[in-house]
Task: structure prediction
Amino acid sequence: MPRGNRAGGAMVDPRRPVLVLNDVTKTYPNGRDALKDVDLVVPEGDFVFLVGASGAGKSTLMKLLIRDELATQGTVTLDGDDLARLPRRKVPHVRRKIGIVFQDFKLLPTKTVRENIAFALEVTGTSRRRIKPAVNRVLALVGLTEQAEQYPKQLSGGEQQRTAIARALVHDPRIVIADEPTGNLDPLISWEILQLLLRINELGVTVLMATHDADIVTALRKRVVALEEGRVIRDEVGGGYHRAG
Amino acid sequence: MLSFFLFSISRAWQGFWRNAAMSLAATATMTLMLLLLSSFWIVQAGFLASLSYVEDKVGVVADLDDNIRQSALTDLQARLAAMPEVRAVEYVSKEEALRRYREQRSAQGQDDLTPFLNDNPLPASLEVKLRRPADYRTVAEFLGAEPIVAKVQNIEDTTDRLVSLTNFLRTFGVLLLAVIGSIVLFIVINTIRLAVLGRAEEIEVMRLVGASDAFIRWPFVFEGALVGLLGAAISLGVLVGAAEPLSRFMVGFFSILPINVGSISRDVTILVLGSGLGLGVIGAWVSVRTYLIR
Ligand SMILES: Nc1ncnc2c1ncn2[C@@H]1O[C@H](COP(=O)(O)OP(=O)(O)OP(=O)(O)O)[C@@H](O)[C@H]1O
Ligand SMILES: [Mg+2]
Result:
């Protein structure tokens, strides 16, 4: 698949695309065009920053990926499945291929760290026998083994976000979608969360992260997709938060 | 399948206790509403029994001529009994009429003056019990045309008024019960909706991590059933506790009514358990539906 604006010019990327948006437009029922003619291909194992001013359409794009919303025009394909044609009962299976992380963590306050993570497996019908080792594995991965029995209230913001990331990972997803995961955290903790996402990416998981954090984006030199009023205005590897120059 | 069932039940149990305040509020509402519903049901049952008791008293009394032939009497009794409107026919002889008269006098504490009479002045009569008071006129006219009947005692006005009153009261009772039933339905479903709304976060997380509709819905439905059954159990406990003193208080009144206590308590038990379970399940079902995959 040729992707001219990627490094290396019009080369064919040999990696399998895990995420493809083809000419996608999303118009909300109130008439608002949140996305317009968006084309985006994310190959397996990529790390992509999604940047843009508030209201540019970043969250909308992520809602399309988890089929919380449907595209008004164009197709959204996730790991080979056209989401618009997916029967309702298959939707949960597609969602299990995606790990989702939010700015506000979305942890359940009445459950401990361990229970919050296990919850994702319980409600998808995983047998008890397989839950425990899976939870222990991701607890170790995010470095929360010690805090496993604590409640979200007893954790720092960074630890809460790591819990949310662990929960997103416990299904062994192909792709992790993070909508401003560092939005509520101070810079030092933000870097910690980013290190974690990079480590996950090194394990082969595709990461798509929406952010306003210019420092992080500019420093990491990863692929950057910039949205402006619903359109992709820039898609380059190694770009900064702002247009170069 | 079985493990899904067990999972849903255990999640329902957990959900109930982890959100104890909300669950207990819902249970309390459920209990109050079931008590309201069952009290009205019981009042209604007593009320209907009173109405039939009163209606039962309506009959046609025909005084007979003296010295009629036995065959003419038997013939009239047979033809009356064959009428679809007639439930029972009783012959009251002159002697029986006199005996009843004496009994009535002495019950009222008045002197018995009958020994001073040479002759029994009271007529023999036929007392006809009706299936429906509304048939009064038909039967009275039929009896009036009979040659051996001296006079049909006229209570037509009273009967007409009684019939229209009981019909009105019956309709009113049913309407009232329907209104109460709708109010109960509305309040219970909204309470459960609020309880589910309080758990919107949990449902959202379930959706996001890829739980199927069944995994989201059934624990809530079981939890609704739990709230319903718990409310029903408490209501029945309260009713049983209240039944004893209440019936002692009312025994004088109710003993004259044709009330079947056994069948009423059975009906009320079924009503309370059925409505509790049904309302809990329906309430949870419709409340969760809003959150499922669109
Ligand atoms: N459910 C909705 N109904 C109608 N309009 C919506 C809805 N959700 C988002 N929008 C509109 O779509 C546009 C894009 O919103 P979106 O949330 O995708 O922006 P964003 O890039 O995530 O912004 P932010 O950085 O503030 O999170 C906005 O103008 C927003 O008002
Ligand atoms: Mg957003």
Chain A touches chain B at residues 66, 88-89, 91-96, 98, 100, 106, 108, 110, 119-120, 122-125, 127, 167, 171 (CB under 8 Å). The radius of gyration of chain A is 18 Å. Confidence is low (pLDDT under 50) at residues 1-9 of chain A.
